[in-house]
Amino acid sequence: MMDDKVVPELTVDDKLAELTIPENVANALLLVSNSSSLEKALEKLIKLAKEAGGRLDLSSKNVVTTVLRLCQSLSSTSYRDLLLLSLKVLRNLCAGEIRNQNEFLQQKGVEIVVDVITSVGFTPDPDCAIIQVALQLLGNYSVGGGERQCDVWHQLFPHKFLKIAGVRSREICDPLCMVIYTCCDGTDGLLTDLCSEQGFPILTEILRTASAVGLKEDWLKLILSKICIEGSYISLIFFKLHSYPSIENNGVRYVADQFVIEQSYLLSILSEILNERIEHIVVSHDFALSIFGILKSAAVVVDFSIRGKSGLPVGSAPIDVLGYSLTILRDICACDRLTSSMEESSKYVVDVLVSSGLIEFLLDLLRELEPPTTIRKAMKQDQIKEGTISSSFRCCPYQGFRRDIVAILGNCSYRRRHVQDEIRDKNGILLLLQQCVIDEDNPFLREWGIWCVRNLLEGNAENQGAVADLELQGTVDVPELAGLGLQVEVDPVTRRTRLVNVP
């Protein structure tokens, strides 16, 4: 028998006099909350469900079922405030209380909530609060794992996820990432779905939204850490962010229109992840090699004729891609961990990068740069003029570019004899000694330079001998090098600088 429709005893201020809902739904909520109006009942239930004890107590009173039925009767946006309160009650009830989660599952709560989201629509200006709380509810529910994760996934993947991801709202993007992560966490099949041709558009749309509006929470970082840093999907996601197809030439991937801001945003997030959690992340070989490939691509398209006036980000996608690639490699080489893959477990990530030409590539970049500011200022004006230096040397495209190169070389050479030897064999010792100075365009260059030289010389008699054999010519005094027993000299013919022993 159908429930009779009645008008609940609500106050005029509630503006709900014309709302009809099942009588037993209204009465049940008023009774369980000891309230005189439906709005007050929901507000009280929200507060009760914030506490674990309150959630447990309400789990024995079928509140989840009752509120779900209320949601079904509030499909009209005319009752938006009451619908929002109902979703908040359900969100709080499903936060860590398995009994409420089970009741939500039995009553097909996901289907009801997805209908609510769909009824709001995905217009350019949707009701973000309704979608936000609905997604928070689904995230809390899917934390229960197993059947709950699949329940949410099968209702939303891929089309509804994609539509939600296209809404340019931080308030929606954060809980959407929460739902996706909690569904995939510990569920390999769903993670495989996310990294498929159907899933990649969702990820790229999330990144476009996040790059436009920013994020407050770490859910996107957790997703990217799992599929990019620990997984093998960085290249696919990175190049799908560009609207033009990529072209591969001699092992380096290029893009028809350089790079876009979404790509630099992705790398900035990955750099943050490594900087914050490097001790807890297992870096895959594929990730490291892909970042090296991206670095080489960016080095081709960046304009090195203009000296950067600020640190990262500078707002130029190619320069930011170049810079974040370097900071990522710096942190990878600072804490080299074995990957979890059995095939990769015999080789360290740094060794894989070195065998792929990282050291030679970085030394070449460094050689082409203009001298650090300390050395430039110490030189005679008739030797090198600021107005003509860019015709002979490259400038640092952002403040810190030279420092980041030196940092990677220093981290790679730490207690790695084969890297120390390679740098010597490629005539890199003198070049790196020149970096032990203060540079206005590269904060902390001196500290990174000394760290690098220390690592090059530690336990390596050949490298120590190479430094001892430096010959004196006309020298320039740089006090910062006194602690190393070195000084700068300028070759009168080539006008390039090098460091020699203090006589």
UniProtKB/TrEMBL annotation:
Record's keyword terms, sorted: Cell cycle, Cell division
One Pfam family from the record: Atx10homo_assoc
InterPro entries: ARM-like, ARM-type_fold, Ataxin-10/CTR86_families, Ataxin-10_domain
Domain Ataxin-10 stretches: 401-493
SUPFAM superfamilies named in the record: ARM repeat
Lineage top rank: taxon: Eukaryota
PANTHER family: ATAXIN-10
Name assigned to this protein: Ataxin-10 domain-containing protein
Organism of provenance: Datura stramonium (Jimsonweed)
